[in-house]
Here is the input.
Amino acid sequence: MSSDFDNIAPTANGVVIALGANLGHPIEQLRAAVLRVAGICSGPIQCSSVWETVPVDCPPGSPRFANAIVCATAPAGVSPIEWLDQFQAWEREAGRGPKRVHNEARPLDLDIIAWGRQIWDTPRLVLPHPRAHLRRFVLEPLAELLPHWVLPGQTASVAELLRMLPPEPAFRRWLTATELQRGPSEATENGFESKPDISSH
Here is the structure.
């Protein structure tokens, strides 16, 4: 995997994807999703660390999330809607059912944060993601990969946006990207080696 994506996200087919999970086996679900994303890309991908994050705008008592960011390059001719359809199919395969409660817990969540410099505003998809610049669970992992990148519609870089957010003591790195890629042998049945199951928080 490449370690320099400063020239990927701003390109026409450069895609920033947010991954999250707070039900079932979050690390295994994120690992599988990263591999699947890699399988549909036209070039190398880069994955951030996995972060343990406090649920934002979720029902009371929601488990904490495991969150990560992937930067990838979509094949020429592929549209954001095609990938949105693919991601939603993967979410269903992971066990995500029809939404009953706003921001309820889920076994897998895949969001397209940005697709090059494209601006979309449709019932199904808004690009860039309208709240990405306000979410630590997006900006913290994204800053590992693209600290100097400016999201479409913003004037501050990812690192600068991150510094503007209030402190969040409960936010912490759980696994490095290398640890995420090591496979199930490195994880307990709850998803993390020598760390508590996030669903118990």
Summary: The beta strands are 14-21, 46-47, 50-53, 65-73, 109-115, 120-121, 126-127, 172-175. Residues 93 and 133 are 29 Å apart (CA to CA).
